[in-house]
Amino acid sequence: MLIVPQYIPIMAKITRKPAPRKAAVPKKKAKAVLKAATAKPKAPAKTSSKATRPNSIKSWTPAEIHEVFSRFRKANPEPKGELEHINPFTLLVAVVLSAQATDAGVNKATRALFEVADTPQKMLDLGEERLREYIKTIGLYRTKAKNVIALSAKVLSEFGGEVPRTRAEIESLPGAGRKTANVVLNMAFGEHTMAVDTHVFRVGNRTGLAPGKTPLEVELGLEKVIPAEFMLHAHHWLILHGRYTCLARKPRCEVCLINDLCRWPEKTV
């Protein structure tokens, strides 16, 4: 019997060299590297608006301001407020109702109201509940109805049924503020006051006539620069200009009476 020798394969032993170890990084240095890698890029330093705009808006000269209001007067010699009223009391009520509402909306409600209640006593006789029915289309009508009844009572008890003729006294009435007082004093009694609403505030700032952060700042600024001969109608001209020409979103610079004098850097003419 022939014996065939068996061949047993022998596996070569493979040895691998260990990978070289990375040098240890000190903990402090590792944290610094991580912080630098994850840090948000710094925003570019803001330039001060004062530094970039000190001379960008040229101040108005007295001659230019006189020219502006001369043009307004020529275009509209006797401007009228758009709130409909019969007497100082109904004017006071209309202005109180006009807060955060349009003049057109107030007029729509007060036409019928003033037919039945055009004096403080008649307003009290009407009563708060019935008053609400007349003005319910006006925003905040419940609060305004309460104020109108309260101011009517105060006008009767403290001022003999007549609308007071000083700013402080008018401001003491429920629902009446400085703007209300200025409108009443100007329209009812011919005082040279400047009522600053959103339109006047915008025009004063945009044109550069009287820049201010608050309505009071704009009011005082306009009173300081507007010549006395124009003050009786000045706030009406500015309100109408802001309402129909110097609009908030799309000012109509192409038809503006004072576009050549206006200091607004973004004007379109």
TrEMBL record:
[4Fe-4S] cluster binds at residues 246, 253, 256, 262. Its cofactor is [4Fe-4S] cluster. Pfam families: EndIII_4Fe-2S, HHH, HhH-GPD. SUPFAM superfamilies: DNA-glycosylase. CDD domains: ENDO3c. Residues 36-51 have a biased composition (Low complexity). GO terms for biological process: base-excision repair, AP site formation. InterPro entries: DNA_glycosylase, Endonuclease3_FeS-loop_motif, Endouclease-III_FeS-bd_BS, HhH-GPD_domain, HhH_base_excis_C, HhH_motif, Nth. Its EC number is 4.2.99.18. The keyword Iron-sulfur applies. DNA repair enzyme that has both DNA N-glycosylase activity and AP-lyase activity. The DNA N-glycosylase activity releases various damaged pyrimidines from DNA by cleaving the N-glycosidic bond, leaving an AP (apurinic/apyrimidinic) site. The AP-lyase activity cleaves the phosphodiester bond 3' to the AP site by a beta-elimination, leaving a 3'-terminal unsaturated sugar and a product with a terminal 5'-phosphate. This is Endonuclease III. It comes from Bradyrhizobium cajani. The lineage of its organism: Bacteria, Pseudomonadati, Pseudomonadota, Alphaproteobacteria, Hyphomicrobiales. The gene is nth.
